[in-house]
Design goal:
228 residues, alpha/beta, Rossmann fold, 6-stranded mixed sheet, 4-stranded antiparallel sheet, 7 helices, binds adenosine-5'-triphosphate, binds magnesium ion
């Protein structure tokens, strides 16, 4: 197996005015290709901070992050932008663009340089089919349920053939039926399509469907477990 993500003694200190907030205090984590890791932990324990660092949305204060063996701190701005495009991010709030349809939201995230217009449209349609929204393609976000919007967000995250999917509480704002649909989808993406998944959740039950769970507390990983 190849390691796609490796965090080595990762630290992140935010400055709140003059007060330092140690959000991560030395995290070590290795994620293999095809893995499905759930990150659990109380509010404020550093879960989103860790996800943002792994997605190269933010820089660590100390320590190293390797993506496919490459130290992210050695990348220039162009290379960083390139890396970010190949990371699928699903946020807790869906972040769809309201005035565009489901299909347009997925199309828009595709790289214009790599894919022509007709091809983008075809890919967007097939991604929406994968997440079970073929019939809702031309709906705008306000015309979709919360769970459907989250599935559009997942289709969008898959658009640039990402190295891995980062999900920050993907079921945090939807009802439990929609949440179990999303979890079914996420499991299928991992098992059938081999998509590597790193998912933050508050929900122990959802976490147990992942291959591994990682518990965070106060900026540290305090426990790691293999589920199945
Ligand atoms: N931009 C920021 N500036 C200052 N402090 C921050 C910033 N972002 C996060 N923090 C602090 O860092 C710590 C970790 O925050 P983080 O968002 O990673 O927690 P979390 O585990 O994702 O929590 P939640 O479950 O509530 O989403 C918290 O104490 C938070 O207040
Ligand atoms: Mg968070």
């Amino acid at each position: 197996m190849t390691t796609i993500v490796e965090a080595v003694n990762l630290k992140k200190t935010y400055m709140l005015g003059k007060v330092p907030v140690e959000a991560l205090r030395g995290v070590n984590l290795k994620i293999e290709n095809g893995d499905f890791v759930a990150i659990l932990g109380p509010s404020g324990s550093g879960k989103s901070t860790l996800l943002n660092l792994i997605g190269a949305l933010d820089k660590p204060t100390e320590g190293k992050l390797l993506i496919e063996g490459v130290d992210v701190s050695t990348l220039n701005d162009n290379q960083l932008a390139d890396l970010r495009r190949r990371v699928g991010f699903v946020f807790q709030f869906f972040n769809l663009i309201p005035r565009f349809t489901a299909r347009e939201n997925v199309e828009l995230s595709m790289s214009i340089v790599d894919v022509g217009k007709a091809e983008r449209r075809k890919q967007a349609e097939s991604l929406l089919e994968i997440v079970g929204l073929k019939e809702r393609m031309n709906h705008k976000p306000t015309e979709l349920s919360g769970g459907e919007q989250q599935r559009v967000a997942i289709a969008r995250a898959l658009a640039n053939n990402p190295r891995f999917l980062l999900m920050d509480e993907p079921t945090g704002n939807i009802d439990s039926k929609a949440a179990s649909d999303i979890m079914g989808l996420v499991n299928r993406l991992n098992e059938e399509k081999g998509v590597t998944i790193i998912m933050v959740t508050h929900d122990q039950r959802l976490a147990s469907s992942a291959k591994r769970t990682v518990h965070m507390f106060d900026g540290l990983i305090i426990n790691e477990k293999v589920n199945h």
